[in-house]
Amino acid sequence: MAVISYREALRAAMREELKRDDKVVIMGEEVAQFNGAYKVTEGLLKEFGPKRIVDTPISEAGFIGLGIGASMLGIRPVMELMFWSFSYVAFDQIVNNAGNIRYMSGGLINCPIVIRGPANGGTNVGATHSHTPEAILASHPGIKVVCPATPYDAKGLMKAAIRDNDPVYVMENTILYNDKGEVPDEDYIVPLGVADVKRVGTDLTIVAHGRAVITSLKAAEILEKEHGVSVEVVDLRSIRPLDEETILTSVRKTHRALLVEENKPFCGVDAQVAYLIQSKAFDELDAPIHRVSSIDAPQIYCKRMEDLQMPNVERVVAEALKVLA
Amino acid sequence: MAKPAVLTHPESLKRPAGPSDYAKDPVNAAMSKADKLALYTKMARIRHFEQRCIRIYQQGKIGGFLHLYVGQEAVAAGTISLLGKHDHIITGYRDHGHGLMVGMGMNECMAELTGRVTGCSQGKGGSMHYFAPDKNYWGGHGIVGGQAPLGTGLAYAVKYMGLKGSCLAYMGDGAVNQGAVHEAYNLASLWDLPVIFVVENNGYSMGTSQERSTAHPGCLAKRAEGYNMAWDVVNGHDVYEVRAKTAVALKRAHEESKPTVLEIFTYRYFGHSMADPDKTYRDKEEIKEYRDKKDPVLLFEQELLREKVLTPELSQKINEEAMAEADKAAVFADESPDPTVADITKHIYWEEDNRGPKTTSRGTIIFE
Ligand SMILES: Cc1ncc(C[n+]2csc(CCOP(=O)(O)OP(=O)(O)O)c2C)c(N)n1
Ligand SMILES: [Mg+2]
């Protein structure tokens, strides 16, 4: 086991897959010469050369569409979006093309493409650069979405995504890029659709994904120390496919659920999770399901307010106590 | 207020249609009698297939949109007749002609229109979404211009794999105003990709004439200059000319790995789709003028009659056979079964359709 950062874990995943399969190509704005806007692809150009690591012009619809077209012929492009916020100018390609072609062709074609990049708020950059489109994208059958929270999951999910034969959209988080964690030296993947119980507990289940997992783990600590409650934290890791069983198993044990995500509340991922719990474990619940999400407004610029807009430890603790009351 | 059109038309379009200037062009001179008859037969088959579709549509058996290719046959026929093993094609929603040209059967094409499980996409795509990847045909796309980046990507893949091939990415004269098309142009030229953007200029995007949609008063192909790309204009009523000029672009793709924009002037006889009453934006005389004087199937027939490749009897036979084939396909499309409710949730994910120990996905992926 080595202790590496989330950024290094992503890079290691790409590096290993580039070596394993010569159909894998890394493409995006500034990924090659500049070493990546967030340095995730640093050093890859030097190691693999310009055929495998490709700088693109600022044409998200163009180059992502190109990647989708190439994937239909068996290339396995891993496309970097500098921010997932920029996916909106390529929405037609990402949703209509990558997501629908297999279906509309009656299964004749598949698009083994990965689109990856940061999708998070909390960086003081204003509304246009702070979108978290996992719920929007996961609402389209044909698309897969994963949101790793730790270096281990980042590497394992990225490798699974690259080997997967469907479009997989990997939502990273700039705030997590420097987080460190243990990552095995040997080859492994984290299959899509398998949640992870990041903390075992008995009194309350917190379901979260992405950085909200880290926030929830910190909150769980406080809840344990200061309030004597034992909290289980379920990290979804993958939004679509979704590991319904792990969520339900946890709720059947704790009988209480708090759902935490950095999305805005309306039609967020947790709206789906709440529906799941009430439809399949209603009788198990001792209290209504609560949610903590970002305050429902475009992302505010002011850093002090943005920290309050997003789920933070204090908000999670306060909401957990309400569920436990 | 319409801008004055200073169209850069191909030379051959500036005078009345007659014998082709391109009959002796090497790619056409190299055609055997059988090749020529096969090409004519394919054009006739597209014509009769489409005309048969009108009847089925009017009987209420085809849902959604139905965009006919009647009048434009020489474009798909001429371009696709030149393609080899590593040449790919992709187009918009006016996609039947291309499908038949690559060798899709009338049955599977017709059954897709009636939404049958025997359709090329098992009733999941419809008229606008034909696919035949085994024949290098990558659709059939419903979003105007959205296929241009995909076609560029197919060409990228061909080049990446070190193959001598290309992709022909077709679009309409309205599609050239889509941002995705311009992004694709730039990428294709920047990266020297073997893609040929075929602009099928039929003069209208729905009810909007080209003069009312496009600021540049010259031809649409000339926009290629802004991207340092080669371009040409083509008389799309003459299948020999289409072949001759496509061959040049194909050579550029194969030998130099460079893209081209080919603007092929053509005309559609029916409304934009069957939903278009075709009453507001052009007059009947204009349509009649094209039908009478520039019909691509008729012109090629006359060409082949002059060349003594075809006789009136043989032509009649070919057309009757095509009609009979379309009739049979109509029956097939009518009598085939629908997909089932269980089929609705198939073909969404490769990993779901192929679940096994090696698949990378678990968990719930289709929700209640
Ligand atoms: C993005 C998008 N906008 C609008 C439409 C509706 N639409 C379908 S076809 C069409 C006209 C396109 O004309 P053109 O590109 O000239 O192709 P043609 O129909 O003449 O073959 C329009 C507006 C669409 N399908 N996609
Ligand atoms: Mg048009």
What's the quick description here?
Chain A is of the alpha/beta class. Chain A contains twelve helices and 14 strands. Helices cover 38% and strands 18% of the residues of chain A.
What is the CATH architecture assignment of chain B? 3-Layer(aba) Sandwich
- The CATH architecture category of the largest domain in chain A equals 3-Layer(aba) Sandwich
In whole angstroms, how far apart are the ends of chain B? 53 Å
- CATH C-level category of chain B: Alpha Beta
Helix content of chain A: 25-40%
CATH uppermost class of the largest domain in chain A: Alpha Beta
* Overall mean confidence score, pLDDT of chain A: 98
Rounded Rg of chain A: 19 Å
Total beta strand runs of chain A: 14
Specify the biggest β-sheet of chain B: 6 strands, parallel
Number of helices of chain B: 14
- The rounded Rg of chain B comes to 21 Å
Largest interface: A-B, 59 and 60 residues
CATH superfamily of the largest domain in chain A: Thiamin diphosphate (ThDP)-binding fold, Pyr/PP domains
List the secondary-structure elements of chain B in sequence, H or E: HHHEHHEHEHEEEHEHEHHHHH
What is the N-to-C succession of helices and strands of chain A? EHEHEHEHHEHEHEEEEHEEHEHEHH
Describe the 3D structure.
Chain A is an alpha/beta fold and 325 residues long. Chain A folds into two domains: 2-183, Rossmann fold; 196-323, Rossmann fold, CATH 3.40.50. Helices cover 38% and strands 18% of the residues of chain A. Chain A is built from twelve helices and 14 strands. Chain A has helices at 6-20, 44-48, 60-72, 91-97, 101-104, 134-138, 151-163, 211-227, 244-254, 269-281, 303-309, 313-324, and strands at residues 2-5, 24-28, 53-55, 76-80, 114-118, 144-146, 168-172, 180-183, 196-199, 204-208, 231-235, 238-240, 257-260, 290-292. In chain A, the strands form three sheets. Chain A has a seven-stranded mixed beta sheet with strand order 3-2-4-5-7-6-12, sandwiched between helices. In chain A, strand 2, helix 2 and strand 3 form a beta-alpha-beta unit. In chain A, helix 3 runs parallel beside helix 4, helix 8 packs across helix 12 and helix 9 packs across helix 10 (269-281). The radius of gyration of chain A is 19 Å and the shape is globular. The relative contact order of chain A is 0.12. Chain B has 368 residues and is of the alpha/beta class. Chain B has a single domain (11-353), classed as Rossmann fold, CATH 3.40.50.970. Helix content of chain B is 42%, strand content 11%. Chain B contains 14 helices and eight strands. Chain B has helices spanning 26-29, 33-58, 73-80, 96-102, 106-113, 147-160, 179-190, 210-213, 239-256, 284-293, 296-306, 312-335, 341-344, 350-353, and strands at residues 87-91, 137-140, 166-172, 195-201, 204-205, 208-209, 230-235, 260-265. Chain B has a six-stranded parallel beta sheet, sandwiched between helices. In chain B, strands 5-6 form a two-stranded antiparallel ribbon. In chain B, strand 5 (204-205) and strand 6 form a beta hairpin. In chain B, helix 2 (33-58) crosses helix 3, helix 2 (33-58) runs antiparallel to helix 4 (96-102) and helix 3 runs parallel beside helix 4. The chains are: A alpha/beta (325), B alpha/beta (368). At the A-B interface, helix 3, helix 4, helix 5 and helix 7 of A face strand 2, helix 6, helix 7 and helix 14 of B. Bound molecules: thiamine diphosphate and magnesium ion. The site of thiamine diphosphate has 14 residues of chain B, from strand 5.
